[in-house]
Amino acid sequence: MLCTFSASHAQSTPTAPAPAAAPPATELGMTPAIKNYCDKLEKSFKRYGWDKSECETFKWSHYRNSVLGDPLMWTVFGDVSDEEQPSFKDKDVTIVMCGVHGDEITPVKFCFDLMYYLREAYSNPDKLKGEFHNKVVLVSPLVNPDSYFKARPTRVNARGVDPNRNFPTADWQKEARKIWLTKLRRDKRKNPGERPNSEPEVVFQVNLIKRYNPDKIVSVHSPLTLLDYDGPSIAANNGLDGVKAHELLNQMSKDASGYNIKDYPFFPGSLGNWAGQERNIPTYTLELPSADPRKSNEYWKLFESAMHKVIVHSLRQDLAKAPGVTDTHEPGKEGVPAIPGTSAN
Predict the structure, then answer these.
(1) Phi, psi (5° rounding) for residue 16?
(2) What is residue 196's DSSP assignment?
């Protein structure tokens, strides 16, 4: 059910070079590609009247590039040194992604505000021993840099494909292009591509999720002013998994002054469909009220408490506390068939 935003004008599909090969995988510091990315990001922050991004002060991971060669990156808060060990399964993992559609400006700043908040929280020993214990958060603040960095940002990527209609969902082959050609009348802003999982920005998200097996995902968009949920139903796992996931949704709304909750339809090729519906990973879509960069600080203040709750809320912990119930569901850890052409990010 990942919703999207229609502020940009339809444009012809640009001719773009094939994605440049990423440099050797790095999680250890600044590379020339990341330095150039941070320089461009800093210029965009100045353009929108925001404070400095502090992009270069974060530790970035980078394995894959966008169509036009910008690094697709994420940063980690919490200990992932045991990622390949059994102990990692005991950690509560949250993935937060922003900038999926480049013309949705405010979500990019929202993710950076979250990163500033988390950096401070994870530097507090008392919090690490308390509510942030065994919590891991991965933030990708700009999933679609090619469209965001344009003089006139667009929803689609550099090949004219919507990154939220290209996920390899079970219904993609049958429905995605059919809906686009008929119901959507070839709307260039909703183009699902020629085949599923064809775009590097989508492969990046798929591999990030497969690598870290998150317990929950938050994807931040604008401007529909709503919270949406895809994932385990009320009846899943004796009703408890879905109940707790919906409790978190309601708590997010309550903490954000009663923010509107809407059961928005999911689409072939969307993240909510692929992760929430097909893989039972609780997936929350936060649609901010607008893409107006002047409102960015206001939106973070509105949702700061709600995002805190998302991170410290553990579905597995809640399930374990339920008497007489065995937690047989590890969110995101179902067997996911390998997708040709992908590799772990």
Answers:
(1) -125, 145
(2) T
Is 71 strand, coil or helix?
Answer: strand
Three-class DSSP category at 200: helix
By CB neighbour count within 10 A (0-12 exposed, 13-18 middle, 19+ buried), where does 135 fall? buried
Q: Positive or negative CA dihedral for 220, 222, 226, 232? A: negative
Could you list the beta-strand ranges (E) of 22-118. 60-65, 71-77, 92-97
pTM, entire model: 0.84
Give the DSSP H or E segment for 305: helix 296-312
Indicate the pairing of strand 60-65 with strand 92-97.
unpaired
User: pLDDT tens digit string along 202-260?
Assistant: 999 999 999 999 999 999 999 999 999 999 876 554 334 777 889 999 999 999 999 99
Strand order in the sheet with 135-140: 60-65, 71-77, 135-140, 92-97, 216-221, 283-287, 226-230
Secondary structure (3-state) at 10: coil
Q: What is the four-CA torsion angle of 323, 328, 330, 333, rounded to 10 degrees?
A: 180
Please give the single-letter amino acid code of residue 83: E
